[in-house]
Amino acid sequence: MALGDVVLVATDLSESADEAIKLGHEHAQRAGGKLVVCHVVHEVLRSAPLFPQAIQADMEAVIHAESHAAAAVEDRVKDLTGRPSNGFEVRIESGGADASILRVAEDVGATLVVTGSRGLTGIARLLLGNVAERIVRYAHCPVLVARPHKRTNKILATTDLSELSQPGVALAGQVAAEQRGALTVLHALDILPSPAFGFTVPFGGAPVIPPPELIEQMRGAADGVLVGMTERLGIKAERRVIEGDAATVVIRTAEELDAELVVVATHGRTGLARVALGSVAEKIVRGAHCSVLVARSH
């Protein structure tokens, strides 16, 4: 199944969501798949049994808002993608944004959900919060968090070498093949463990840094695992093993490569259920300068 077979784009009609529409269109177009664009109208119905006319007025307001939203979404998609009206489906929902989008994703059998990096506020802050965060956490399929970036055809996949991180590498290989892009697979060699778990002198002592020869052995071993992983998945990619904190290394490497996309699995060593995104993945989605594709590890 191709990533773009059924693409659901979540839009709040903001400029941030425009990039989501563009990227969703591109993925669906490459796969010859279906594009569904969803907008959620906030619904507030009063609980006033003694005043049914108030409830009726609210319902009429919602219906009016949904009608206007449908027209606005259709115009936006046509302007941004050049698709005709019958070249995509518009879904207008009412209620909670994240719950509605997740419900539509299940309903249409989405193979990819695309969302903007921030919403109507336009606040220049890091991503994960509110609607986008919950979509990434709970969606049954991969989620693409869209950020504007020039097309460089460079893709960066990150792995902690665990089996749970392999879906991210596999998905990155699929995207690279579809786009004929250059793929780099990265492993961050964190040689300084957290003080809570690492080898430290009691009462605030400095962590013990492994000797250079041991670090080189660790680097070689990690590269060997990367070779086996890429060969097993049938992926051609440049391999990199870089020392440092995983999220920091990934974000910095993406900038150095001028990558247009970073691909990360939802969790690695922890093996937690999909409700837990994982701190490394969360930091990457928040801090990357480009779009981030979050693969679901089952």
TrEMBL record:
CDD domains: USP-like (cd00293), USP_At3g01520-like (cd23659). Residues 7-147, 153-296 form the UspA domain. It comes from the Bacteria. InterPro entries: Rossmann-like_a/b/a_fold (IPR014729), Universal_stress_UspA (IPR006015), UspA (IPR006016). Belongs to the universal stress protein A family. This is Universal stress protein. It comes from Polyangium jinanense.
